[in-house]
Each structure stands twice: as C-alpha cells, then as structure tokens.
Amino acid sequence: MSAGLRQLIADTQETFRTDPEKARATFKSSSNLTQGFRSEVSIRDHRLTVDEPAALGGTDSGPNPVELVLAALGTCQEITYRAYATAMGIPLESVSVELEGDIDLRGFFAVDESVRSGYKNIRANVRIKSDASDTDLQKLREIVNAHCPVLDIISNKVPVQMEMSVTRPLASREM
Amino acid sequence: MSAGLRQLIADTQETFRTDPEKARATFKSSSNLTQGFRSEVSIRDHRLTVDEPAALGGTDSGPNPVELVLAALGTCQEITYRAYATAMGIPLESVSVELEGDIDLRGFFAVDESVRSGYKNIRANVRIKSDASDTDLQKLREIVNAHCPVLDIISNKVPVQMEMSVTRPLASREM
C-alpha cells in the first residue's frame, strides 16, 4: 500500500496547490446522552459509546471524554508518522503511542475556580520501530509534530462557538 | 439516579476541599497502528478502532482522530450539563450535541506552512429539553462552559511533552 499511499499524498498536495478551495474540509459528530452519563455518538456510519467510570458517577460502558482526547492525539500522531514516513521514503516498521494526562478534578467540580478543568499537561511516548538513520527519524519527528492536526488542536487555542437551543417538554407546554 | 448523583457530587466536592491531593487524576490511552492508517486503541478495558476514510488514504474502519476530538467535546458537554443540572436542581430531560469543525487540509499536507493543521474553528449546537426557566438555563450554560474539561482543553493551550523511543528491527541489528 506504500507506493499507492505515496502517490495519493503527492496527488493531494498537487490538487490543493492548484485549487486551495478543495482543501476545505468540515468534520462532524453528533451525540446524545441516553442514561446517566452515558452518551451514544454518531460519526458518519460509525458509532461509539462514551461514559464515565463508576468513581466519576457513570456505568463505565465506554471511555470517558478526556480519555477520548488522548486517543485522538495518539492515533493522529501514528497516522501522521505513517503518512510522512511514506511521503519522505523513510522506512517505518511500526508506530505506537502511550499517553498520560493529568487533571486536577477540583477544576471540574468547581472546588477551586483558579484550577483549570482540562489537562494541566499531557505526556506522550511515541514508540517507533525503524532502521532509518537517527537524522532521518529526527527530521520525521519534526515534520510530524509541525503537521499533526490533533497536536495543534490540543497545544494551541481553537475558537469554539457554542449555541444552545431549548425545547420545552410537552407536559410543561400543556400547563 | 438523580438523588444518588447529587450526593456523589456533593461528597466529592467535600473530599476535594478537605484533601486536594485526592483530586489529582491521571488518564491514559495507548494505541498501535496496525495496518495503513488503522489504529487499535486501548483505554482501560475499552477498545476502539480509529482509521481514515478512503479519500484520506484509509479503509474507513472507524472515525478519524479529528472526528474523535469533536465526539470528546460533545459528550463532555452533555456529561457536564447533566452533572451541574443535577447539582443545581435544574430539571434537564435530555441533552444532545451536534458539532462541526473546519480544517484547511493544506496545513496537514504541508502545502502552505502558514495554514494551521488543526481546526480553524468549531461550531457546537447544544440541544436541551427542559422546563426550567430561561434564567436557570442561562446560569447552567455559563457554569457548564466554565467547567467542561474538553472545552477547556480545546479552547485553551495544553502543554504536551512528546518523547520518541526507537527500536531497531532484528534484520538491521544483524547487519
């Protein structure tokens, strides 16, 4: 698949250079809290269940949202390593990522308003199996970290517009 | 489950006030790129598959990493609405979230180095069903947006430390 992928990357770059409008992409997700803290997510044809562990009030039927953030970062690093190794002709036998993130839960629980609710910091260990030179792997690492979308999202600010729409239950409308 | 959850939140807040060390939590994820852009993720006892759609070089066996970020934000909003509605005694029949995020793929594909690789912006529509007053729902919305962990992670900067460790395939060690 490597030669096909290398061609796909080159073709895509050429398309986006010629016609930047084609590079505009919109991704979507919708979810619905069904019971307690359990939510069912739909992303195109894919489904996943998100929940909290019992210690945080859930029924542990899936990973929780902050764990999903780590999963997004790890898999994005792996895909970006694979894509750039292929594009640059650098051998890459395997790549896997382990992540840890620290949260001070006083933030979420509003115990101390000076404590942020999200991760204070995230540590990642990217494990590479490759017989490429150290120089090539350092080049690969730099280009990956400069172009990994989820690393950009987490380590920099993204503007989020939050709309809220309210519907009234039938019972209250009848009163 | 509402009364039990309300008590759990109150108890947790009291514990964290008395002993802030107990509020320190570390979340983890590990993943492994198995084939092409497909990665298998392990989070505690939970498994999920991440992949890219065919147009981006994958086999579409799961959502992609930037879609997972949206799923994390949507479910975190929902859980935070449920938790604070319960804690504040505000009725909340249902909550669901729809999200869209825009990416200019010239960033990821290194076609234009001035273009960021992550989301340029994210739009969320939080749909609430409730017979609470508009004033209470506005209060709820404000406290949720001030304490939602994934909203903090995405809309603010998180420091990420990236380590890379390299192992050499057996074949190259034998040379």
**Which spans of chain A of ≥5 residues are poorly predicted at pLDDT below 50?**
none
Average pLDDT taken over every residue of chain A: 95
- Rounded Rg of chain A: 21 Å
Main β-sheet of chain A: number of strands, strand sense, barrel status? 3 strands, antiparallel
Structural class of chain A: alpha+beta
How far apart, in Å, are the first and last alpha carbons of chain A? Answer: 64 Å
How are strands sequenced across the largest beta sheet of chain A? 1-2-3
Oligomer: homodimer
Write down the secondary-structure element order of chain A: HEEEHEEHHEH
Strand content of chain A: 25-35%
Q: Which pair of chains has the greatest number of interface residues, and how are they split between the two chains?
A: A-B, 124 and 124 residues
Taken from the alpha-carbon principal axes, the silhouette of chain A is: globular
Number of strands of chain A: 6
Count of runs of 4 or more consecutive helical residues of chain A: 5
**Estimated helix fraction of chain A:** 25-40%
